[in-house]
Amino acid sequence: MCSTCGCAEGNLYIEGDEHRPHSAFRSAPFSPAPRPAAALTGITFAPQRSDAGDLHYGHGEAGTHAPGISQRQMLEVEINVLDKNNQLAARNRARFAAREQLVLNLVSSPGSGKTTLLTETLKRLNEHVSCAVIEGDQQTVNDAARIRETGTPAIQVNTGKGCHLDAQMIADAAPRLPLADNGILFIENVGNLVCPASFDLGERHKVAVLSVTEGEDKPLKYPHMFAAASVMLLNKVDLLPYLNFDVDKCLAYAREVNPDIEILLVSATRGDGMDAWLNWLENERCA
């Protein structure tokens, strides 16, 4: 995971930091809690095997590989990192719950259409629901600028070399957004189907966005993400006539990984499924 690949060593930038160099929340004390390894690893997926000499580095108690580091060392690092993150996420969740705010963590690979789907969603919601957005990318403020063009307050979080958002970043960014009680906070995570699966931000749900241009076997290739998601939005369905994409297989693969996942077929550009998506949002907001 990224605690061993070094992705967290980049420069973090949150819009407004030049005026607020320190967050009061960042100085909150942390005490690691004892935690069994089994609680961390969660679901175990057996790699598919063949006789072609394929290499599989997902074995062992850490479920990953790094040169010169033992499985036990990697597991201890992962436990420490995620334990601290989970404590911060619990604080975030309590703050959001106190204001009855619906918080969603949008996750996907790059190019799935997350930002376009989000802008079209906001255009439909802004008239009657208070919304705000935290945008996660390694660099640029491009996506936050796109969101603000819809009239929605947004703040950009640049993770530098980091490949995901974490609970501390959300704790720093969320208070800067003017979100009303009972509103919806959308967190658009860094485009990555690996590391964001492990990091709780304090959201109520992870929403996985999968584009039909990516191939129907993505849920099997990246099972931890789809296992962690409550909802999968199969996006860009307007392109289906031009692609060799088996929708039924894709849905079956997603449910093989996560039998409880809710699936909606949508097209941000043509509008397919947007009413069903908005109804889901409203039901969750009022829950």
UniProtKB/TrEMBL annotation:
Record CDD domains: HypB
Occurrences of domain CobW/HypB/UreG nucleotide-binding (ranges): 103-263
Signal peptide residue numbers: none
One matching Pfam family: cobW
Biological processes annotated in GO: protein maturation
SUPFAM superfamilies per UniProt: P-loop containing nucleoside triphosphate hydrolases
Keyword flag rRNA processing: no
Keywords: GTP-binding, Hydrolase, Metal-binding, Nickel, Nucleotide-binding, Zinc
GO function terms (MF aspect): GTP binding; GTPase activity; nickel cation binding; zinc ion binding
Listed NCBIfam families: hypB, PRK10463.1
Family: Belongs to the SIMIBI class G3E GTPase family. HypB/HupM subfamily.
Name recorded for this polypeptide: Hydrogenase maturation factor HypB
